[in-house]
Write a sequence for this structure.
Protein backbone atom coordinates (compact mmCIF):
# COMPACT_ATOMS: atom_id res chain seq x y z
CA UNK A 1 0.00 0.00 0.00
CA UNK A 2 1.25 3.47 -0.89
CA UNK A 3 1.19 6.36 1.57
CA UNK A 4 1.78 10.10 1.26
CA UNK A 5 2.67 12.27 4.23
CA UNK A 6 4.23 15.63 4.88
CA UNK A 7 7.75 15.75 6.27
CA UNK A 8 8.26 17.02 9.78
CA UNK A 9 10.07 20.29 10.28
CA UNK A 10 12.01 19.06 13.30
CA UNK A 11 15.07 16.84 13.30
CA UNK A 12 13.01 13.66 13.74
CA UNK A 13 14.37 12.35 17.05
CA UNK A 14 13.48 8.83 18.16
CA UNK A 15 13.70 7.40 21.71
CA UNK A 16 15.73 4.27 22.33
CA UNK A 17 16.26 2.11 25.41
CA UNK A 18 17.51 3.58 28.72
CA UNK A 19 15.81 6.85 27.85
CA UNK A 20 18.57 7.91 25.45
CA UNK A 21 17.72 9.96 22.41
CA UNK A 22 19.06 9.03 19.00
CA UNK A 23 19.41 11.89 16.59
CA UNK A 24 18.59 10.70 13.11
CA UNK A 25 21.22 11.69 10.54
CA UNK A 26 20.55 14.65 8.30
CA UNK A 27 21.82 15.26 4.81
CA UNK A 28 24.68 17.55 3.95
CA UNK A 29 22.14 19.80 2.19
CA UNK A 30 20.11 20.10 5.41
CA UNK A 31 23.26 20.87 7.41
CA UNK A 32 24.22 23.65 4.99
CA UNK A 33 20.72 25.12 5.22
CA UNK A 34 20.88 25.09 9.02
CA UNK A 35 24.30 26.76 9.00
CA UNK A 36 23.10 29.49 6.64
CA UNK A 37 19.69 29.98 8.20
CA UNK A 38 17.91 28.80 5.05
CA UNK A 39 14.54 27.12 4.66
CA UNK A 40 15.42 23.64 3.34
CA UNK A 41 11.89 23.04 2.07
CA UNK A 42 12.09 26.17 -0.09
CA UNK A 43 15.65 25.72 -1.30
CA UNK A 44 15.02 22.13 -2.43
CA UNK A 45 11.34 22.36 -3.27
CA UNK A 46 11.83 20.86 -6.75
CA UNK A 47 14.16 18.01 -5.76
CA UNK A 48 13.92 14.43 -4.48
CA UNK A 49 15.56 11.58 -2.58
CA UNK A 50 14.87 7.86 -3.13
CA UNK A 51 16.05 5.51 -0.39
CA UNK A 52 15.03 2.70 1.94
CA UNK A 53 14.91 5.17 4.87
CA UNK A 54 11.17 4.94 5.46
CA UNK A 55 11.31 6.62 8.87
CA UNK A 56 13.32 9.59 7.70
CA UNK A 57 11.75 13.03 7.27
CA UNK A 58 13.02 15.99 5.27
CA UNK A 59 11.83 19.44 6.42
CA UNK A 60 8.85 20.63 4.38
CA UNK A 61 8.90 17.63 2.07
CA UNK A 62 6.42 14.85 1.30
CA UNK A 63 7.13 11.14 1.20
CA UNK A 64 5.56 8.14 -0.49
CA UNK A 65 6.25 4.41 -0.11
CA UNK A 66 6.32 1.55 -2.56
CA UNK A 67 7.80 -1.81 -1.60
CA UNK A 68 11.06 -1.29 0.24
CA UNK A 69 11.60 2.15 -1.28
CA UNK A 70 10.56 5.59 -0.03
CA UNK A 71 10.34 8.61 -2.29
CA UNK A 72 10.95 11.92 -0.51
CA UNK A 73 10.24 15.06 -2.54
CA UNK A 74 9.63 18.77 -2.38
CA UNK A 75 6.22 20.32 -2.95
CA UNK A 76 7.14 21.81 -6.35
CA UNK A 77 8.14 18.50 -7.94
CA UNK A 78 5.39 16.83 -9.95
CA UNK A 79 4.94 13.17 -8.99
CA UNK A 80 2.80 10.92 -11.20
CA UNK A 81 1.81 7.39 -10.18
CA UNK A 82 2.64 4.76 -12.76
CA UNK A 83 0.30 1.75 -12.87
CA UNK A 84 -0.08 -1.46 -14.82
CA UNK A 85 -3.17 -2.27 -16.90
CA UNK A 86 -5.09 -3.36 -13.80
CA UNK A 87 -4.23 -0.28 -11.75
CA UNK A 88 -1.46 -1.81 -9.62
CA UNK A 89 1.09 0.77 -8.52
CA UNK A 90 4.42 0.04 -10.29
CA UNK A 91 6.38 3.25 -9.83
CA UNK A 92 6.54 7.01 -10.22
CA UNK A 93 7.26 9.56 -12.92
CA UNK A 94 8.91 12.67 -11.51
CA UNK A 95 8.81 15.96 -13.37
CA UNK A 96 7.09 16.77 -16.66
CA UNK A 97 6.87 13.86 -19.09
CA UNK A 98 5.13 14.16 -22.45
CA UNK A 99 3.82 10.92 -23.94
CA UNK A 100 3.23 11.31 -27.70
CA UNK A 101 -0.47 10.93 -28.41
CA UNK A 102 -1.32 11.02 -24.68
CA UNK A 103 -0.08 14.42 -23.55
CA UNK A 104 1.39 15.21 -20.14
CA UNK A 105 1.68 12.32 -17.69
CA UNK A 106 -0.85 13.32 -15.04
CA UNK A 107 -1.97 11.83 -11.71
CA UNK A 108 -1.90 8.27 -13.04
CA UNK A 109 0.01 6.94 -16.04
CA UNK A 110 -0.78 3.43 -17.23
CA UNK A 111 1.50 0.86 -18.81
CA UNK A 112 -0.62 -1.43 -21.01
CA UNK A 113 0.55 -4.73 -19.54
CA UNK A 114 0.27 -6.63 -16.27
CA UNK A 115 3.23 -6.31 -13.96
CA UNK A 116 3.45 -10.11 -13.58
CA UNK A 117 4.09 -10.58 -17.31
CA UNK A 118 7.59 -11.82 -18.07
CA UNK A 119 8.09 -8.98 -20.57
CA UNK A 120 6.54 -6.19 -18.46
CA UNK A 121 9.87 -4.42 -17.99
CA UNK A 122 10.44 -4.45 -21.77
CA UNK A 123 6.96 -3.06 -22.43
CA UNK A 124 7.47 -0.33 -19.85
CA UNK A 125 10.90 0.49 -21.23
CA UNK A 126 9.46 1.00 -24.70
CA UNK A 127 6.96 3.50 -23.31
CA UNK A 128 9.60 5.26 -21.20
CA UNK A 129 12.03 5.59 -24.11
CA UNK A 130 9.37 7.43 -26.11
CA UNK A 131 8.72 10.08 -23.42
CA UNK A 132 9.83 13.67 -23.91
CA UNK A 133 10.35 16.51 -21.44
CA UNK A 134 12.19 16.69 -18.14
CA UNK A 135 11.57 13.64 -16.01
CA UNK A 136 12.82 10.65 -14.04
CA UNK A 137 11.03 7.29 -14.08
CA UNK A 138 11.23 4.93 -11.11
CA UNK A 139 9.98 1.44 -12.03
CA UNK A 140 9.35 -0.89 -9.06
CA UNK A 141 7.54 -4.20 -9.52
CA UNK A 142 9.28 -6.45 -7.00
CA UNK A 143 11.20 -8.35 -9.66
CA UNK A 144 12.29 -5.15 -11.38
CA UNK A 145 13.76 -2.09 -9.66
CA UNK A 146 15.03 0.45 -12.19
CA UNK A 147 15.46 4.19 -12.59
CA UNK A 148 15.40 5.83 -16.04
CA UNK A 149 16.63 9.35 -16.84
CA UNK A 150 15.22 11.68 -19.48
CA UNK A 151 17.24 11.83 -22.74
CA UNK A 152 19.83 14.35 -21.48
CA UNK A 153 19.31 13.95 -17.71
CA UNK A 154 17.81 17.41 -17.28
CA UNK A 155 16.24 16.00 -14.09
CA UNK A 156 19.45 14.69 -12.50
CA UNK A 157 20.12 11.29 -10.98
CA UNK A 158 22.97 10.94 -8.49
CA UNK A 159 23.54 7.88 -6.33
CA UNK A 160 25.81 6.27 -3.77
CA UNK A 161 25.88 2.50 -4.11
CA UNK A 162 27.40 2.19 -0.63
CA UNK A 163 24.42 3.82 1.11
CA UNK A 164 21.75 2.89 -1.45
CA UNK A 165 20.55 6.49 -1.68
CA UNK A 166 19.60 8.34 -4.87
CA UNK A 167 18.86 12.05 -5.21
CA UNK A 168 18.78 15.00 -7.57
CA UNK A 169 21.86 16.75 -6.13
CA UNK A 170 24.99 15.81 -4.24
CA UNK A 171 24.12 17.40 -0.90
CA UNK A 172 20.96 15.28 -0.75
CA UNK A 173 22.82 12.02 -1.39
CA UNK A 174 25.37 12.61 1.37
CA UNK A 175 25.02 12.50 5.15
CA UNK A 176 28.72 13.34 5.46
CA UNK A 177 31.19 15.89 4.10
CA UNK A 178 32.32 15.54 0.49
CA UNK A 179 35.25 13.16 0.03
CA UNK A 180 37.42 14.65 -2.69
CA UNK A 181 37.46 12.95 -6.10
CA UNK A 182 41.08 13.27 -7.29
CA UNK A 183 39.99 13.16 -10.94
CA UNK A 184 37.80 16.24 -10.51
CA UNK A 185 39.13 18.63 -7.84
CA UNK A 186 36.27 20.78 -6.57
CA UNK A 187 38.24 23.98 -7.13
CA UNK A 188 38.65 23.18 -10.82
CA UNK A 189 35.00 22.20 -11.25
CA UNK A 190 33.49 25.16 -9.42
CA UNK A 191 35.73 27.64 -11.25
CA UNK A 192 34.68 26.22 -14.62
CA UNK A 193 38.18 25.03 -15.52
CA UNK A 194 37.08 21.40 -15.64
CA UNK A 195 33.68 19.86 -16.48
CA UNK A 196 32.40 16.73 -14.79
CA UNK A 197 31.78 13.75 -17.06
CA UNK A 198 31.71 9.94 -17.35
CA UNK A 199 29.38 9.69 -14.35
CA UNK A 200 31.70 11.45 -11.91
CA UNK A 201 30.88 13.99 -9.22
CA UNK A 202 33.27 15.92 -7.02
CA UNK A 203 32.74 13.16 -4.42
CA UNK A 204 34.80 9.98 -4.63
CA UNK A 205 31.90 7.51 -4.27
CA UNK A 206 28.81 9.37 -5.51
CA UNK A 207 28.12 8.84 -9.22
CA UNK A 208 25.83 10.49 -11.76
CA UNK A 209 23.45 8.33 -13.76
CA UNK A 210 24.11 8.30 -17.49
CA UNK A 211 21.31 9.29 -19.84
CA UNK A 212 20.01 6.48 -22.07
CA UNK A 213 20.99 4.00 -19.33
CA UNK A 214 18.82 2.65 -16.57
CA UNK A 215 20.12 2.19 -13.04
CA UNK A 216 19.38 -1.29 -11.65
CA UNK A 217 18.67 -0.81 -7.95
CA UNK A 218 19.43 -4.46 -7.18
CA UNK A 219 23.16 -3.96 -7.78
CA UNK A 220 23.46 -0.28 -8.80
CA UNK A 221 24.75 -1.23 -12.23
CA UNK A 222 24.00 0.95 -15.24
CA UNK A 223 22.69 -0.61 -18.45
CA UNK A 224 22.22 1.07 -21.83
CA UNK A 225 18.65 0.93 -23.15
CA UNK A 226 18.87 3.40 -26.05
CA UNK A 227 19.51 3.57 -28.94
CA UNK A 228 18.54 0.05 -30.06
CA UNK A 229 21.14 -1.93 -31.97
CA UNK A 230 19.22 -1.75 -35.26
CA UNK A 231 18.62 2.01 -35.26
CA UNK A 232 20.19 3.76 -38.26
CA UNK A 233 21.61 7.27 -37.94
CA UNK A 234 22.70 7.94 -41.50
CA UNK A 235 20.32 9.60 -43.93
CA UNK A 236 20.87 10.98 -47.41
CA UNK A 237 20.67 14.68 -48.13
CA UNK A 238 17.55 13.87 -50.20
CA UNK A 239 15.76 12.95 -46.95
CA UNK A 240 16.44 16.32 -45.32
CA UNK A 241 13.11 18.00 -46.02
CA UNK A 242 11.15 14.99 -44.80
CA UNK A 243 13.21 14.85 -41.58
CA UNK A 244 12.84 18.60 -41.06
CA UNK A 245 9.07 18.31 -41.41
CA UNK A 246 9.02 15.52 -38.83
CA UNK A 247 11.07 17.66 -36.44
CA UNK A 248 8.74 20.63 -36.88
CA UNK A 249 5.62 18.54 -36.36
CA UNK A 250 6.85 16.75 -33.24
CA UNK A 251 8.50 19.80 -31.62
CA UNK A 252 5.41 21.93 -32.31
CA UNK A 253 3.25 19.23 -30.74
CA UNK A 254 5.33 19.24 -27.54
CA UNK A 255 5.10 23.04 -27.31
CA UNK A 256 1.33 22.84 -27.82
CA UNK A 257 0.97 20.29 -25.01
CA UNK A 258 3.06 22.40 -22.62
CA UNK A 259 1.39 25.73 -23.38
CA UNK A 260 -2.10 24.23 -23.11
CA UNK A 261 -1.39 22.77 -19.68
CA UNK A 262 1.07 25.19 -18.02
CA UNK A 263 2.09 28.83 -17.80
CA UNK A 264 5.09 29.06 -20.10
CA UNK A 265 7.77 31.65 -20.82
CA UNK A 266 9.75 31.69 -24.07
CA UNK A 267 13.14 33.43 -23.95
CA UNK A 268 14.01 34.82 -27.38
CA UNK A 269 17.44 36.11 -28.39
CA UNK A 270 19.13 36.75 -31.70
CA UNK A 271 20.37 33.17 -31.82
CA UNK A 272 19.22 30.19 -33.82
CA UNK A 273 17.94 27.89 -31.10
CA UNK A 274 15.36 30.25 -29.61
CA UNK A 275 14.25 31.20 -33.11
CA UNK A 276 13.47 27.57 -33.90
CA UNK A 277 11.31 27.38 -30.78
CA UNK A 278 9.64 30.66 -31.74
CA UNK A 279 8.92 29.30 -35.23
CA UNK A 280 7.44 26.08 -33.86
CA UNK A 281 5.37 28.09 -31.37
CA UNK A 282 4.30 30.72 -33.90
CA UNK A 283 0.65 29.64 -33.83
CA UNK A 284 0.70 29.41 -30.02
CA UNK A 285 2.12 32.82 -29.10
CA UNK A 286 -1.13 33.93 -27.46
CA UNK A 287 -0.81 30.96 -25.10
CA UNK A 288 2.58 32.09 -23.79
CA UNK A 289 2.62 33.98 -20.50
CA UNK A 290 5.70 35.93 -21.53
CA UNK A 291 8.32 36.33 -24.26
CA UNK A 292 11.46 37.82 -22.81
CA UNK A 293 15.24 38.00 -22.60
CA UNK A 294 18.00 38.72 -20.09
CA UNK A 295 20.53 41.49 -20.62
CA UNK A 296 23.51 40.89 -18.35
CA UNK A 297 26.60 41.48 -20.56
CA UNK A 298 27.49 42.90 -24.00
CA UNK A 299 26.54 39.80 -26.04
CA UNK A 300 23.17 39.57 -24.28
CA UNK A 301 22.63 43.31 -24.89
CA UNK A 302 22.78 42.65 -28.63
CA UNK A 303 20.77 39.46 -28.23
CA UNK A 304 17.89 41.11 -26.41
CA UNK A 305 17.81 44.03 -28.86
CA UNK A 306 17.44 41.67 -31.81
CA UNK A 307 15.07 39.38 -29.90
CA UNK A 308 12.81 42.34 -29.17
CA UNK A 309 12.83 43.37 -32.82
CA UNK A 310 11.90 39.85 -33.94
CA UNK A 311 9.08 39.41 -31.44
CA UNK A 312 7.59 42.84 -32.09
CA UNK A 313 7.53 42.07 -35.83
CA UNK A 314 5.09 39.28 -34.94
CA UNK A 315 2.89 41.76 -33.08
CA UNK A 316 3.82 40.53 -29.60
CA UNK A 317 5.30 42.21 -26.55
CA UNK A 318 8.84 41.53 -25.39
CA UNK A 319 10.08 41.99 -21.84
CA UNK A 320 13.74 42.71 -21.10
CA UNK A 321 15.20 41.84 -17.71
CA UNK A 322 18.13 44.15 -17.00
CA UNK A 323 21.26 43.22 -15.17
CA UNK A 324 21.18 42.71 -11.44
CA UNK A 325 24.48 41.86 -9.85
CA UNK A 326 24.40 38.56 -7.95
CA UNK A 327 25.02 38.60 -4.25
CA UNK A 328 27.53 36.17 -2.78
CA UNK A 329 24.77 34.37 -0.89
CA UNK A 330 22.70 33.87 -4.06
CA UNK A 331 25.58 32.23 -5.90
CA UNK A 332 26.56 30.12 -2.90
CA UNK A 333 22.99 28.84 -2.50
CA UNK A 334 22.73 28.20 -6.23
CA UNK A 335 25.85 26.02 -6.07
CA UNK A 336 24.35 24.17 -3.09
CA UNK A 337 21.14 23.40 -4.97
CA UNK A 338 23.19 22.35 -8.01
CA UNK A 339 25.18 19.96 -5.84
CA UNK A 340 28.46 21.73 -6.62
CA UNK A 341 28.29 20.37 -10.17
CA UNK A 342 30.13 23.13 -11.97
CA UNK A 343 29.87 26.64 -13.33
CA UNK A 344 28.63 28.37 -16.47
CA UNK A 345 28.57 32.03 -17.57
CA UNK A 346 24.76 32.11 -17.43
CA UNK A 347 24.93 31.89 -13.64
CA UNK A 348 25.47 35.65 -13.69
CA UNK A 349 21.82 35.90 -14.68
CA UNK A 350 20.57 34.09 -11.55
CA UNK A 351 19.22 37.28 -9.88
CA UNK A 352 17.25 38.14 -13.02
CA UNK A 353 15.94 34.60 -13.39
CA UNK A 354 14.71 34.75 -9.81
CA UNK A 355 12.57 37.73 -10.91
CA UNK A 356 10.70 35.60 -13.45
CA UNK A 357 7.09 34.73 -12.59
CA UNK A 358 7.18 31.94 -10.03
CA UNK A 359 6.61 28.33 -11.08
CA UNK A 360 6.33 29.13 -14.77
CA UNK A 361 7.97 26.78 -17.27
CA UNK A 362 10.84 28.41 -19.16
CA UNK A 363 11.10 26.79 -22.59
CA UNK A 364 14.73 26.34 -23.55
CA UNK A 365 16.38 25.32 -26.81
CA UNK A 366 19.82 24.13 -25.73
CA UNK A 367 19.64 20.65 -27.26
CA UNK A 368 18.85 22.20 -30.65
CA UNK A 369 22.59 22.72 -31.08
CA UNK A 370 22.52 19.23 -32.60
CA UNK A 371 20.97 20.82 -35.69
CA UNK A 372 24.14 22.89 -36.08
CA UNK A 373 26.60 20.04 -35.37
CA UNK A 374 28.17 22.28 -32.74
CA UNK A 375 30.46 19.52 -31.46
CA UNK A 376 31.96 18.71 -34.85
CA UNK A 377 34.77 20.17 -36.92
CA UNK A 378 34.64 19.97 -40.69
CA UNK A 379 37.85 17.95 -40.87
CA UNK A 380 36.37 15.32 -38.51
CA UNK A 381 33.29 14.56 -40.63
CA UNK A 382 33.23 11.08 -42.20
CA UNK A 383 36.51 10.25 -40.50
CA UNK A 384 37.34 7.76 -37.71
CA UNK A 385 36.78 9.09 -34.22
CA UNK A 386 39.43 11.58 -33.15
CA UNK A 387 39.96 10.92 -29.45
CA UNK A 388 41.81 14.16 -28.78
CA UNK A 389 38.97 16.18 -30.27
CA UNK A 390 36.31 14.12 -28.47
CA UNK A 391 37.91 14.47 -25.04
CA UNK A 392 38.70 18.14 -25.58
CA UNK A 393 35.03 18.89 -26.31
CA UNK A 394 34.04 17.38 -22.96
CA UNK A 395 36.28 19.77 -21.02
CA UNK A 396 37.30 17.08 -18.52
CA UNK A 397 40.88 18.22 -18.18
CA UNK A 398 43.04 21.30 -17.94
CA UNK A 399 45.25 20.70 -20.93
CA UNK A 400 48.98 20.89 -20.38
CA UNK A 401 50.52 19.64 -23.59
CA UNK A 402 47.82 17.03 -24.08
CA UNK A 403 49.25 14.39 -21.71
CA UNK A 404 46.41 14.73 -19.22
CA UNK A 405 43.91 14.51 -22.05
CA UNK A 406 45.29 11.14 -23.13
CA UNK A 407 44.43 9.69 -19.72
CA UNK A 408 40.75 9.95 -20.70
CA UNK A 409 41.10 8.11 -24.01
CA UNK A 410 40.27 4.75 -22.38
CA UNK A 411 37.08 6.03 -20.73
CA UNK A 412 35.99 7.71 -23.98
CA UNK A 413 36.65 4.53 -25.98
CA UNK A 414 34.75 2.35 -23.49
CA UNK A 415 31.77 4.71 -23.63
CA UNK A 416 31.88 4.84 -27.44
CA UNK A 417 31.94 1.06 -27.75
CA UNK A 418 28.76 0.85 -25.65
CA UNK A 419 26.90 2.51 -28.55
CA UNK A 420 25.46 0.54 -31.48
CA UNK A 421 27.71 0.55 -34.59
CA UNK A 422 25.57 3.12 -36.45
CA UNK A 423 25.66 5.49 -33.49
CA UNK A 424 29.44 5.16 -33.18
CA UNK A 425 29.68 7.06 -36.46
CA UNK A 426 28.16 10.10 -34.71
CA UNK A 427 30.43 10.15 -31.63
CA UNK A 428 30.49 13.88 -30.91
CA UNK A 429 26.70 14.21 -31.10
CA UNK A 430 26.18 11.37 -28.64
CA UNK A 431 28.92 12.64 -26.34
CA UNK A 432 27.14 16.00 -26.24
CA UNK A 433 23.86 14.32 -25.29
CA UNK A 434 25.14 11.70 -22.84
CA UNK A 435 28.38 13.03 -21.35
CA UNK A 436 28.29 16.83 -21.49
CA UNK A 437 24.70 18.09 -21.18
CA UNK A 438 23.85 16.05 -18.04
CA UNK A 439 26.71 17.75 -16.18
CA UNK A 440 26.75 21.17 -17.81
CA UNK A 441 23.04 21.80 -18.28
CA UNK A 442 20.91 19.47 -16.13
CA UNK A 443 22.61 20.40 -12.86
CA UNK A 444 22.23 24.11 -13.65
CA UNK A 445 18.53 23.77 -14.46
CA UNK A 446 18.06 21.81 -11.25
CA UNK A 447 19.53 24.65 -9.23
CA UNK A 448 16.64 27.00 -10.02
CA UNK A 449 13.94 26.53 -7.39
CA UNK A 450 11.45 29.25 -8.32
CA UNK A 451 11.22 28.63 -12.07
CA UNK A 452 11.28 25.41 -14.09
CA UNK A 453 13.53 25.07 -17.13
CA UNK A 454 12.41 22.56 -19.76
CA UNK A 455 13.67 21.67 -23.23
CA UNK A 456 10.79 20.71 -25.56
CA UNK A 457 13.48 19.13 -27.77
CA UNK A 458 14.43 16.71 -24.96
CA UNK A 459 13.01 13.75 -26.84
CA UNK A 460 14.85 10.67 -28.11
CA UNK A 461 12.91 10.68 -31.38
CA UNK A 462 13.86 14.31 -32.05
CA UNK A 463 17.45 13.57 -31.09
CA UNK A 464 17.44 10.59 -33.46
CA UNK A 465 16.09 12.73 -36.31
CA UNK A 466 18.61 15.53 -35.68
CA UNK A 467 21.62 13.21 -35.50
CA UNK A 468 20.46 11.37 -38.63
CA UNK A 469 20.90 14.50 -40.71
CA UNK A 470 24.34 14.62 -42.39
CA UNK A 471 26.82 16.46 -40.20
CA UNK A 472 28.03 18.38 -43.25
CA UNK A 473 24.57 19.91 -43.79
CA UNK A 474 24.25 20.80 -40.14
CA UNK A 475 27.67 22.35 -39.73
CA UNK A 476 27.24 24.38 -42.94
CA UNK A 477 24.15 26.03 -41.45
CA UNK A 478 21.68 24.59 -43.96
CA UNK A 479 19.24 22.96 -41.55
CA UNK A 480 18.14 25.87 -39.36
CA UNK A 481 17.07 28.15 -42.26
CA UNK A 482 15.14 25.22 -43.77
CA UNK A 483 13.23 24.73 -40.50
CA UNK A 484 12.39 28.44 -40.34
CA UNK A 485 11.37 28.52 -44.00
CA UNK A 486 8.92 25.67 -43.49
CA UNK A 487 7.65 26.67 -40.04
CA UNK A 488 7.63 30.49 -40.01
CA UNK A 489 9.38 32.10 -43.01
CA UNK A 490 9.00 35.65 -41.61
CA UNK A 491 11.77 34.83 -39.14
CA UNK A 492 14.27 34.56 -42.00
CA UNK A 493 14.09 38.33 -42.41
CA UNK A 494 16.37 38.82 -39.42
CA UNK A 495 20.07 38.12 -39.14
CA UNK A 496 21.42 35.62 -36.62
CA UNK A 497 23.38 37.00 -33.70
Amino acid sequence: MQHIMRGQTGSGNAKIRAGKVRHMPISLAEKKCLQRGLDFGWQFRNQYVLSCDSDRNYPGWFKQHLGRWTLHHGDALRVTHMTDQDGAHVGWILGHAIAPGRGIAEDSFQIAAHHSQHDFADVAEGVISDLAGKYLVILLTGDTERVYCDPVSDLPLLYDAQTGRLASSLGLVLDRPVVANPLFPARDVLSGKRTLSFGHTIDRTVKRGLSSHYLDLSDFGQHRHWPPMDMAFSKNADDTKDIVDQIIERLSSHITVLTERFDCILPVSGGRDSRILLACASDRLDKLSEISGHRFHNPSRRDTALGKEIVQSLGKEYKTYFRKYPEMGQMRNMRLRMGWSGARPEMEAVPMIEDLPRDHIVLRGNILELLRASQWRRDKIDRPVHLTHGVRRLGVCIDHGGEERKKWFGAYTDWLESLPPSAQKKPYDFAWVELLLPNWQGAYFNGHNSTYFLNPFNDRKLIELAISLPASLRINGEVVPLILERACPELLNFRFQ
Summary: The radius of gyration is 22 Å. Confidence is low (pLDDT under 50) at residues 1-22.
